[in-house]
């Protein structure tokens, strides 16, 4: 699309929904619904951890890819020869991801698949991916409000499986020395349990504090098929005054995002 032009709306359930085109990483932009699910700090941190965990990865797989934010941000950090498969079950998110690929010219490197990650037909390859990523929903049904917007609901509520399904699919798809990087609720013990149950070994846990003085809200896990030493770390996004911390600014710089440092009331 031409510079400065607004994306065409996307037809969703008979309604033309407005679409925005937003900076994702470097000069890559992403298409997302103005009133739908939009990429977040969770996605950015998952991609950053993934790129740090397997910088030489050549075959990437993103499970429950949504609009493509985690997979594409991870790919942005990789060698130009790296390729990515994105598996997503929601058609509206899949369509937005395809728009983004058209915009960025990444069709030769990225394969978007419309399918359920729990279905082996969606990920038939076994033992071939150097890096698998995922940012699954982590609110069980019955424990939270289900958004009337299906795309938002699917990104937040466990409507199509849990982190256990992500872990099982990742374990099957990984190369022997590959890495699985996944984001989950920090206080939920199901995160580490799912990795163990799938035969994976936790190698790094990054607990993320959104504002100084608060408990961690999310954790990003790095797991592997082979056992090895484990590290536990913590990252604070905002200080008590609401400004981004230097470690978080370093993450944003590494991921090619625009850096501002205003109080949180002024920055989404």
Main attributes of the structure:
Rossmann fold; alpha/beta; two-stranded antiparallel sheet; 268 residues; single chain
Give the secondary structure arrangement, pairings included.
Layout: E1 10-12, E2 15-17, E3 19-25, E4 28-33, H1 41-53, E5 59-63, H2 69-76, E6 83-88, H3 91-104, E7 110-114, E8 129-134, H4 150-156, H5 163-173, E9 174-185, H6 190-197, E10 201-211, E11 218-224, E12 231-238, H7 246-254
Parallel strand pairs: 5-6, 5-8, 6-7, 8-9, 10-12
Antiparallel strand pairs: 1-2, 3-4, 9-11, 10-11
Mind explaining what this structure looks like?
The protein is α/β, with parallel strands linked by helices. It has one domain: Vaccinia Virus protein VP39 (Rossmann fold), CATH 3.40.50.150. Helices cover 26% and strands 29% of the residues. The protein contains 7 helices and 12 strands. The chain has an 8-stranded mixed β-sheet. A two-stranded antiparallel ribbon has the order 1-2. A two-stranded antiparallel sheet has the order 3-4. Strand 6, helix 3 and strand 7 form a beta-alpha-beta unit. The chain is globular, with a radius of gyration of 18 Å. The model has no long low-confidence stretch (mean pLDDT 90).
């Amino acid at each position: 699309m031409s510079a400065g032009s607004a994306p065409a709306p996307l037809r969703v359930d008979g309604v033309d929904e407005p679409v925005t085109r937003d900076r994702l990483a470097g000069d890559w932009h992403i298409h997302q619904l103005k009133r739908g699910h939009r990429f977040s700090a969770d996605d950015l941190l998952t991609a950053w951890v993934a790129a740090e965990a397997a910088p030489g990865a050549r075959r990437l797989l993103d499970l429950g890819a949504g609009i493509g934010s985690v997979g594409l941000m991870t790919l942005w950090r990789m060698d130009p020869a790296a390729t990515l498969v994105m598996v997503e079950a929601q058609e509206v998110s899949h369509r937005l991801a395809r728009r983004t690929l058209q915009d960025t010219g990444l069709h030769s490197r990225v394969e978007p698949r419309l399918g359920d990650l729990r279905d082996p037909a969606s990920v038939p390859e076994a033992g071939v991916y150097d890096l698998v990523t995922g940012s699954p929903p982590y609110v069980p049904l019955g424990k939270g409000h289900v958004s009337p917007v299906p795309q938002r609901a699917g990104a937040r509520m466990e409507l199509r499986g849990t982190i256990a399904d992500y872990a099982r699919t990742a374990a099957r798809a990984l190369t022997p020395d590959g890495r699985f990087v996944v984001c989950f609720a920090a206080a939920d013990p199901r995160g580490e349990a799912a990795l163990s149950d799938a035969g994976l070994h936790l190698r790094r846990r990054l607990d993320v504090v959104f504002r100084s003085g608060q408990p961690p809200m999310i954790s990003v896990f790095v797991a592997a098929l082979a056992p090895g030493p484990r590290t536990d770390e913590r990252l604070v996004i905002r200080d008590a005054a609401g400004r981004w911390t230097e470690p978080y600014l370093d993450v944003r710089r590494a991921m090619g995002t625009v850096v501002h440092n205003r109080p949180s009331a002024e920055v989404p």
